[in-house]
Amino acid sequence: MTVESAVAYIKRMRADDDFRKKMNDLSEDEEASWGEIRKAGYQFTMSEFKLAQDEIYKEHGITPM
User: Is the pTM of this model over 0.85?
Assistant: First the structure.
């Protein structure tokens, strides 16, 4: 599990409308959502996802609230 995988996931969510819709449709079912993330080839924990968000914020010059 890696932060890099989480960064790749976030970038795909930003760029791939169909993937984003599929993931958003599953967002109410945590188990199904994580299952689909793994099925898509991403391996990260929620802690790594939060670190990845910080990287994306820095990359885009965003200051989180």
Answer: yes
